Amino acid sequence: MALTEQEILAGVGKIINEITGIPADEVTPEKSFVDDLDIDSLSMVEIAVAAQDEFGVEIPDDKLKDLKTVKDVIGFIQG
Amino acid sequence: MSTDQVRVVVTGLGATTPLGGDVASSWSALLAGQSGVRNLTEDWVDSVPVKFAARAAVDPTEVLPRPESRRLDRTEQFALIAAREAWAHAAIDKVDSERLGVVVGSGIGGITTILDAYDTFKEKGWKRLSPYTVPMLMPNGAAGWIGIEIGARAGVHATVSACATGAESIGYAIEMIRSGRADVVVAGGTEAAIHPLNIGSFAAMRAMSTRNDEPQRASRPWDKNRDGFVLGEGAGIVVLESEEHALARGAKIYGVAAGVGYSADAHHIAQPEPTGAGVMLAMRRVLENSGLTGQDIKHVNAHATSTPAGDVVETRAIKEVIGDHPLVSGTKSMTGHLLGGAGGIESVFTILALHERIAPGTINLDDLDDGIEVDIVRGAPRKLPDGQIAAINNSFGFGGHDVAVAFTSV
After folding, report:
1. How far apart are CA B327 and CA B193, in angstroms?
2. Total domains in the fold of chain A
3. Beta strand pairing status for B8-16 and B255-264?
4. Which of A57, B92, B332, B382 gets the most CB atoms within 10 Å of its CB?
């Protein structure tokens, strides 16, 4: 069964909290990784690998740079 | 006790050691004669001949937030914790970042990161490596992180000279300030090398104590029955500052970093030169560099690792260059040997000894070895004299590095 957007958001929030320490409830769809959450490119790699484990969706490097906001990541995971 | 050079003073101290998670707890445990050595409980202990080490009293991952811990090697974790304590202690509100430097080194660097990452690489492939693997394994990583945190732009350096690293870093920092490159420098050493590969490798050199039935009695500098060093971990960091800068901001001054003496044995990659010529040269040079005489030196925090080869030679060198009057302490009897961290924590202890007028003791010294003709502080600490006094921290390392750093009381 496909996950809902809310379930994916919760999962992404948990990953980001684990890696960066940012509280999961601050990870909302419209937030930009660089401008709002201050997440650097190395941490984005960690987040992508963790998301792959959590959701079983591989994020290729050339797609990763296009994922600017939390919403972009949710959309990519939803397919 | 005067030179025409810029005076460098100590305005901040930080440490995390096998005796305590900060300076105060480490120092009080040291004065109480406690041992920081304990049995290892890891499952790999059966694979090595040494079953004990001086683990840090407070695990750094209990102090640092988890997101920070996971991107730092343990070497960097210790260094950041000690640097934060030293920086807070110095209470510098405002400093020109182009006049602020860092010199923090490690003997080995992020070796546990290297080994763990290689396991990950072999088992799961390169994509599973943390993107922080390189900054975690590089030996200048600790200096880099500290520099970023405090905004140090005068220069961030990492000396590497095995067990002389911490002292060499502090010496380099003194020279940075004297030469006019910086007003304030955060300096010291860190190490986190308790890993079966390191223990196996040091054991292969027959350098480590194997007193497995009495771990807390294993580190015994100058004792006839010493059988090697005990591996420790942690970091010691100082904040050094030009006297002018410190006075201008009304800083509390804990001591003067009077000078440094460097030399090298040019003899053997791991064994000390048997006449102590290199050690004597470093001590002569530290006196010259600090404008001190042997008579001024009232205390020596000796390198004294508890290995059969080096301990006695160092005391002969002290007697020859300084005299038989200083109170000589072997604090590795309590902390174990922190390798690149040793000169850091032992400089912190030397500064505190001058500031509080007390020379720490040396535990486990039951039967003084032959040929030792200096005044070793056996057992309990002893009082240092009033008035203007000086002390030396000696640190020597594989590769033949000899470093002596001198401090004077305020």
Report:
1. 31
2. 1
3. antiparallel
4. B332
Q: Which residues sit opposite B397 in a β-bridge?
A: B401
Torsion of CA B274, B278, B284, B286, to 10 degrees: -130
pLDDT of residue B1: 45
Residues of B in contact with A46 (CB under 8 A): 130-132
- At residue B110, the pLDDT reads 98
Disruptive mutation site among B130, B133, B134, B148 for chain A (greatest number of A CBs within 10 Å): B130
The answer to whether B395 and B262 are in contact (CB under 8 A) is: no
pLDDT tens, position by position, B144-156: 999 999 999 999 9
Q: Which residue of A has its CA nearest to B135?
A: A42
Q: Which domain holds residue A64?
A: 5-78
Fold of B8-408: Peroxisomal Thiolase; Chain A, domain 1 (3.40.47)
Q: What is the pLDDT of residues A6-31, one digit of tens each?
A: 999 999 999 999 999 999 999 999 99
CA B337 to chain centre: 9
The fraction of chain A above a pLDDT of 70, given in percent, is: 99
Reply yes or no on whether the pLDDT at B399 is more than 90: yes
B48 compared with B2, residue with greater pLDDT:
B48
- B66–A21 C-beta distance less than 8 A: yes
**Nearest-by-CA chain B residue for A22:** B67
Q: For the domain that residue A60 is a member of, what is the CATH number? A: 1.10.1200.10
Closest Cα in chain A to B133: A42
Domain boundaries, chain B: 8-408
